[in-house]
Amino acid sequence: MPITITDKAASEVKRIIQEQRAADPTLGKIYLRLRVIGGGHSGLQHKLDLDPVVNDKLDELFEYHGVPTVVDKRSLLYLENATVDFHDNTGRRGFSISTGKSGTSGPPKTGAAPSDSSLEERVIAALRSVFDPEIPVNIYDLGLIYDLNVDSSGSVSIRMTLTSPACPVAGSLPGEVQSRVQAVSGVTSVKVDLVWDPPWSMSRMSEEAQLQMGLF
Known about the structure:
Strand content: 25-35%
Oligomer: single chain
Strand order of the largest sheet: 3-2-5-4
Radius of gyration: 21 Å
Order of helices and strands: EHEEEEHEEHEEHEH
């Protein structure tokens, strides 16, 4: 199976479900739902929820230590070899999801670039840490970066757009992009130009972003 749930995590999930059933005896079957959403330092976040609803077309069902578990097919691609554990130590109590790798597992590589990578790679990693407020995808994989030039002196120029001229962050997102890139080691200057031609469309999204948005 692609996911492991430890005995301790399964026991805690069962305890929580029992508490919910005691509070509301009319509850039907409850599933532990694992999912991956946009956000966080690495560009993606793991989430755990209790969910009474299963979509037969979009979800995969599993059972671990008596805990019915559901994962949507998109998230499953990012959760290969993931382990769900529960911690009840001093100063740390709660669930964790680890993939056995540094960063988030799965196709997209949205975390910070290693220090020995090229300057352009580090700039792209910085761009992937900025997210559109209305779509849970980083602006690089969303296709909002039309042109990126990094010269040998550390000068960076960026041509970017937004999903719509009416985007609520039209006045602030370019500034955020500039500050994130300026903070990259080796960058000496940053110029960000906001353009509207050609208009953005979903065809500009990377395959990973389209997969995350369920467009495949």
